[in-house]
# Entry
Amino acid sequence: MAELEEDHRRTERPTTSIVANHGSSIPFRSVGSFSIPAIITGMWQVAGGHGKIDQKKAVEEMKRYAFAGLGVFDMADIYGPAEEIYGKFLREYLGANLVLGFTKFVPRYGSSGTNTREVVESSIDRSRKRMGVSTLDMVQFHWWDYRDVHYFDSMKLLYTLKLEGKIKELGLTNFDTLHMAKLYEECAIPIVSNQVAYSIIDRRPEKKMVAWCLKHNVKILAYGSLLGGFLSEKYLGRPEPQRFELTTQSLSKYKRTIDQWGGWMLFQELLLVLSQIADKYKVSISNVAVRYIADKPAVAAVIIGARLSIAEHITSNQATFSFPGLDQGDVALIHAVVEKGNGIAGDCGDEYR
# Structure
C-alpha cells in the first residue's frame, strides 16, 4: 500500500501542466490541493441501466483513459461495482499520467446513524478497501432531505476523518446554493467543490451558485453536459425518440430535461446551431457542448460518463480542447435558441428532493 501511495503522489502535476495527445491539449485546473484535467471520467454508467459491463475489459479501457490524460475517475459508494473496478485498475496501472479517484458518501434516504462516527467511518472504510487506498482522494457528500439536519453531523464527521488522514479533500454533490452555504459557514469546513448538473439548456448554476462559488473558491464539477448523449450528431434531424428508444437511464433522465426546457422541436433548432459551430471549428457537437460548460466561471471540470467496455470516447474527449474556444458570436447564436425555452426551474439538485 505504501508503494502504491508513493507512486500516486509522484503522478501529481502542477497547475500549469497540460496533457498533449492526438493533437489536443487538456488544461489542468485547481480543485483544493489537486490539479486536475478539465475533463474527468464518470463511472455512474457501470452501476446499471447502461448495458452489461465486462469488468476485465473496463479495467483495460480505464488504462487507455489514463494514458490519454483522462485518468481522474468519478464514482460513488452507490455506483454498483465502480469502486471495486477502480481498485482493480489502480493495482494494474503502470503509466506516468495523473490518476485520481473521486468517490461519494451517499447515505440511504431516511437512514439513521449518519450522525454517528461508527456509521460514517464504516462507509468511508468500505470505500477505502474497495478502491485499494489508505486515503481517499476526494469524498463528495450527498444528502437527500434537508429537513433532516443530521447532514451537519455527517459533514463534521467526514472532516474529522479528513484530519485523521482517511480523506484528502471534501466536496459536495447535488447540494443547492442555500444548503451548501449553510454547511460552509455554520460548520466552518473547507469544501473544495460541488458536483451538479450543468449544460447548455440547464443553466441553474448561473442563478446563484456560480457567484457564491467564485466568492468562496469552491469549484463546480459539472455533469450532464452532454444530456446523456443527446447533444451529438446522432440526434440531429431525428424524429423525437419514443420511450422504448430511450435505452439507457441517461437518455430517459435527460429526455425529461429537454421536455422541461422546450421540447424536441426547439432542441432540433439548438442542435442545428451547434452543428454549424462545430463545422466552423472542425469538431463535433459534443465537443462544442462540453467546451461551452468547461469554459464557464467556477467550473473546474466537466464529467463525461464512460460506458466502460461498451463504448469508448477518448479521442472525442481529447478533441474538446483542440480549438481556441467559442467566441462571442458563437455564444450569441447558442443563447438566441436557448432563451426561447422555459429554462429549468429551481436550483441545483432540486430534482433529487
